[in-house]
Amino acid sequence: MSAPVIESHLHTRPSFDLADHPLPTGHEEIYRFAPMDRLAPLLDADADWVAGRVDVSAGPGVAVETVDAVAGLRDAGFVPVDRPSAIGAAMVAQATKVTLWPDTATPLRSAQHDGVGFSAQHGGVGVSAQHGGVGVSAQHDGINPLIVQPNPVILRTVAGSAPSSSAVIIEATPNSRGIVLIEHTGPGQFIGNMAVKLGEGADLTVVTLQEWDADALHAGLHQAVVGRDAHLRHIAVTFGGSLVRLQTNVSYDGPGGVAELFGLYLTDGHQYQEHRLFVDQNQPKTTSRVDYRGALQGQGARSAWVGDVLIRRNAEGTDSYEQNRNLLLTPGCVAESVPNLEIETGNIVGAGHSSATGRFDDEQLFYLQSRGIPENEARRLIVQGFFFDIIARIGVPDVERRLRDAVNAELKYQPEED
Amino acid sequence: MATLVIKGLTADVETETGPKPILKGVDLDVHDGTVHAIMGPNGSGKSTLAYAVAGHPKYHITGGSVTLDGVELSGMTPDQRAKAGLYLGMQYPVEVPGVSVANFLRTAKTALDGGVAPKVRTWPREVNAALARLGLDPDFAMRSVNEGFSGGEKKRAEIVQLELLNPGFAILDEIDSGLDIDAVREVGEGINRFAAQGDRGVLLITHYTRILRYTVPDDVHIFVDGRIVEEGGPELADRLEKEGYERYARAV
Ligand SMILES: Nc1ncnc2c1ncn2[C@@H]1O[C@H](COP(=O)(O)OP(=O)(O)O)[C@@H](O)[C@H]1O
Ligand SMILES: [Mg+2]
Known about the structure:
- Chain A is 17% helix and 41% strand.
- By secondary structure, chain A is of the alpha/beta class.
- In chain A, helix 5 packs across helix 6 and helix 6 runs antiparallel to helix 7.
- The longest helix of chain A is centred in the last third of the chain and has 17 residues.
- In chain B, the strands form 3 sheets. A 6-stranded mixed sheet of chain B has the order 6-9-10-3-11-12, with helices on both faces. A 4-stranded antiparallel sheet of chain B has the order 2-1-4-5.
- Chain B is globular, with a radius of gyration of 18 Å.
- The interface between A and B is medium-sized, with 26 and 31 residues.
- The site of adenosine-5'-diphosphate (ADP) has 13 residues of chain B, from strand 1, strand 2 and helix 1.
């Protein structure tokens, strides 16, 4: 299939050609919030980029293979939209492709599900696949759990301390169901390109966890194409890193598709975390929900959320809503929040947005304290609740549990408030 | 023992245009084992009294004293006051999204008991029993604190907390407003169970007399324009029922 051509004034023309993505000055719309000095290494096409290693653990019903990066990404509807994603695509020859099959279909590699610790190198890119190995969570109601881990820590071991990039393609074939968890940990400079393609009636949950070390830099582009009557849940969880800039784009390949895009971020004083979303309601009767929550703490903590929704002329009967809420836990934090809605047809079910950034609610704090809960503990409960509230909307119990644990672990190690 | 003594209390509320004096010298003694009612017209400062005693950050004590069993409360943080034995059932219980009732109660109980968590074996059963006594489904334990509760459910939940946290002294601010007649009875019975322990004190703030049919006060104080203007027994409430607050309003 061909990539959707975006004629929105908010978006640059997608292209694999690096020349179409010149070095930005920082005044461009898409870079207006980013600290350009800190972003610079991810804009540098002359650096010695190496292919990041991607470890994959997968259960039955899932095929893992290596494909030509550009062809594979293109095939899945992915085209770079900014300089980091173009650099990533240019520097990586091969992509890790993960294909989810419905329970009844024959998985590509079913014959090789014969033991623990199966591992294979694909074309020297450093892909290892483990079937039945560590990290595979239990099967439940026909869902194939899958953990994909582009892990720069492993990359450093393999390729030395070079900036790395990886390309991942997730294809949920028609009527397949699955959960994909992507964990980013460790130090480094990383560009992650990911294409997600949902066939007709597929149901896919993609969770991307940014649990980087404090000095890591990460630019990511996730582009998803949602097929007819398919259901995508994309959940971005950003806790770590010095700079994380994640662009998530969604378009549709037929009517009836649903995209739910959730995010949570906890931005500390030394961090810049940016989440950009673009939902292209390019098909009739499609639905999107965007809901991102951020909590910021410490002098100099900065976050940016930019949510764009484009409702095309032909896309009648669409229903979209986007929301961003930020909680400023201490003085000295800045949360940018920009919802954009472009509507080319009025013949829709709904289109709305809301954005709110505020301090702690004194009434909530007082209520908890009046029951004997000390202020620090009350604050922690409120922040936990702020995140748990959105986690509870995901509707996938395994994922909800995993994310509640991640939030708890993160809040436990909160630095002292200043 | 739980005796609340308020002497010459004056307090401001923080408004957008600066502090506004509301309490103009309140004197009140509520001994343990007794239930007192404060009745007064809307806007007379009843909630301000409750908030000032409990330590709400928007309500500042500017003079006088509040002691619980001889311990001065003003200057304490709200959680310290709770640990001293005070409980405030609020007129408008606050919604805390994402914090489950069960987690909230366990955290509060642990804090009040000096860091000792309630017993895993018995506590959930106690929570369920307390919910059931107030006519609330066990599901409420898993819901976010007050979020999406009806007005009546919020008030019932305040009494559930009262029973489970079992403080020495309870101030209940308009606990009966927004309740249908069955709920008023169930809430009244909950307050009676609490008071029947014998050594607890209750200050019941109300605008109407109907809760007093279930929880009969030992003393009634009429509150107008930031101070107590008349005191008496339960018969005072009956008279209010017939005559309303108009006499007092004129007297001001
Ligand atoms: N947060 C507030 N901001 C501004 N004014 C307030 C606030 N709280 C109370 N007041 C004012 O203080 C007075 C007393 O209010 P309140 O104590 O709530 O009375 P009651 O509970 O008796 O109805 C009223 O005039 C009310 O408008
Ligand atoms: Mg009131």
